[in-house]
């Protein structure tokens, strides 16, 4: 193995060079909730520890990384460098074929475009505050920005809303991507849970996707979220993979 030189080529990028040729690179990404994720891609296995160690020396703790649940070798590499398991995440593929799901009495499910904009924004903010006070945003999809929305844009077309006895009680957020869509969030306010609202919301959102010609959706569920797991598996979702989030304090 020839001598390897590690350079930080940008604020978020590193490069490993041997004999004038690039043999690996690393980068970091800053998530909206403040977490920093580190990633290393090498052409030679021997370079991994050198490149990762150099990056760790430049970066503040805590640091996070994602590893495929079916990749124990990569997990072992990060664990050698002091990373430990933080959380696990399941990936599901969900069919959008219409399902017969009863809407609970007193509940109306409607597209976000038909919802009152102010009340939809208030619902989104209230749900975020409830998540932060309970499980915390580390268990939620990375692109969901924590905290009050303030003036941040909210696209009603991505939402399905449940109104229970006049209250805005729950929502689903969907991001269409070509022939498949991503279920980014399914949430029901604390006082309205255990009524079947989540099932009705998900069924409505999936049915809308089906009518738009989208045949399947995918979603990620934290391993500890038993209610979320039951919701998606009850909708016919099949597990397609998963990730482990490792952390170094």
Automatic annotation (TrEMBL):
SUPFAM superfamilies the UniProt entry points to: Acyl-CoA N-acyltransferases (Nat)
Keywords tagged on the record: Acyltransferase, Transferase
KW rRNA processing (keyword) present: no
InterPro entries linked to this entry: Acyl_CoA_acyltransferase, Bact_Acetyltransf, GNAT_dom
Keyword Acyltransferase in record: yes
UniProt domain N-acetyltransferase: residue ranges: 107-249
CDD domains: NAT_SF (cd04301)
Protein name per its UniProtKB record: GNAT family N-acetyltransferase
């Amino acid at each position: 193995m020839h001598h390897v030189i590690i350079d930080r080529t940008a604020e978020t990028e590193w490069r490993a060079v041997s004999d004038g040729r690039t043999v690996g690179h690393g980068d970091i990404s800053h998530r909206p909730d403040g977490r920093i994720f580190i990633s290393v891609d090498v052409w030679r296995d021997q370079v991994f520890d050198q490149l990762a160690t150099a990056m760790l020396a430049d970066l503040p703790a805590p640091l996070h990384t994602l590893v495929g649940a079916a990749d124990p070798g990569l997990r072992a590499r990060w664990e050698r460098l002091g990373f430990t398991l933080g959380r696990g995440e399941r990936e599901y593929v969900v069919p959008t074929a219409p399902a017969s799901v009863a809407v609970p009495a007193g509940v109306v499910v409607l597209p976000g475009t038909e919802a009152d904009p102010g009340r939809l924004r208030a619902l989104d903010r209230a749900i975020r505050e409830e998540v932060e006070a309970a499980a915390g945003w580390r268990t939620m999809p990375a692109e969901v920005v924590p905290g009050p929305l303030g003036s941040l844009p909210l696209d009603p077309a991505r939402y399905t809303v449940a109104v229970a006895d006049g209250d805005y009680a729950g929502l689903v957020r969907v991001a269409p991507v070509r022939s498949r869509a991503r279920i980014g969030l399914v949430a029901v306010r604390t006082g309205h849970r255990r009524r079947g609202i989540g099932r009705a919301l998900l069924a409505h959102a999936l049915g809308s996707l089906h009518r738009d010609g989208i045949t399947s959706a995918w979603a990620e569920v934290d391993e500890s979220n038993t209610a979320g797991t039951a919701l998606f598996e009850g909708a016919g979702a099949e597990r397609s993979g998963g990730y482990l989030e490792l952390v170094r304090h």
